[in-house]
Amino acid sequence: MTHISADDLRFDIATRAVHAGQEPDPSTGAIMTPIFQTSTYVQQKLGEHKGFEYARTRNPTRDALERNLASLEGAQHGFAFSSGMAATEAVLKLLSSGDHVVSGENLYGGSHRLMVQVLERFGMSFTFVDERDPKNFERAITSATKMIYVETPTNPMMRLVDLRAVAELAAARDLLVVVDNTFATPIFQRPLEHGADIVVHSTTKFLNGHSDMVGGAVLTSLDDVAERLAFLQNAAGAVPGPFDCWLTLRGTKTLALRMKRHDESGRRLAQWLVENPRVRRVYYPGLPDHPQHELACKQMQGFGGMISFDMGSFDAARAVAEGTRLFALAESLGGVESLIGHPATMTHASMPASLRESMGLSQGLVRISVGIENADDLLADLEQAMEGAG
Ligand SMILES: *Cc1c(COP(=O)(O)O)cnc(C)c1O
Hints:
Blueprint: H1 13-19, H2 60-73, E1 77-81, H3 84-92, E2 100-104, H4 109-118, E3 125-129, H5 134-140, E4 145-151, H6 163-171, E5 176-180, H7 185-188, E6 198-202, E7 216-220, H8 223-236, H9 242-253, H10 255-274, E8 281-283, H11 293-299, E9 306-310, H12 314-323, E10 328-329, E11 339-341, H13 353-358, E12 365-369, H14 375-389
Parallel strand pairs: 2-3, 2-4, 4-5, 5-6, 10-11
Antiparallel strand pairs: 1-7, 6-7, 8-9, 9-12, 11-12
């Protein structure tokens, strides 16, 4: 019996989620990948070993996770990191001083902070564009541009990037296209199939799915990029511990099931919010009146459980965010439990207020991560919080 690798794309993604990268432990038959809690490996002779020398460079539990995630994204190579930010940093370090990146403007706040407050100090430059129109990326490209960096759907405005269109204009100019696929997960969107070069994940969110670790991953099918990423992963050293890799492996086994549930409940709650007179506007790509719904149907297989809605004022938003009982007020997303947050003061507080406001990220905006609880219970919880908001 051999393990299911990224080459075995004839298996459905739900099957690969359970098996890819994992095989019963050859020494014991243990069906679960062991947690190889070790820093080093004994060598047989000088220069003779079993492929493992030091655990920053390689660890068998991490290997299994990297193969598993690569398989889910349909990639040839996977790299696990100690956080989503470490994964993003490694990808941006493929570039050098003087290089320019065109990025979508509606990014995870921490990604924006890393670019502007850290990497610009090292001579890299970034231009942020409205990601809804591919032409905006084209217009911002200069002779120094090396990379296009996007999220889709975006956090928290749920804007979409036309991956195929952006990949085509980048390919014509030899630019790398990087997609943060944290929100959609490979269950609902596989950017490499649309021409992207690199996928980034915060595995902290849906991939692990249980709000009990922090991690990141980078997936690609480009051999030369993979070689440089392996070098950066080892040289900079932001690697995850084996226990966190093991937790993530356990998480991905149920990813397909969990995403189906997030999606079903997400669609239901989004529709209920649209019909609620207290709610000014709902942002969810699964709604037929989302301005990019057609694109969502083209490049995604589901819409998930992330919904943003505008309550019209800071006070109304605060009353809802503080008034729920099942939805917990917290940063993060993608766990089995439902969370509620206020992007302007929480996840996106590090983004300039002018940029927040220009893209509609108002003080009245509330973001929910719909968990896998019973949808009737979640709906009733939102309803009582809205009533309390007056
Ligand atoms: C959380 C998040 C990140 C950062 O990941 P960490 O694991 O918190 O470092 C990056 N992108 C998106 C879309 C996220 O939601």
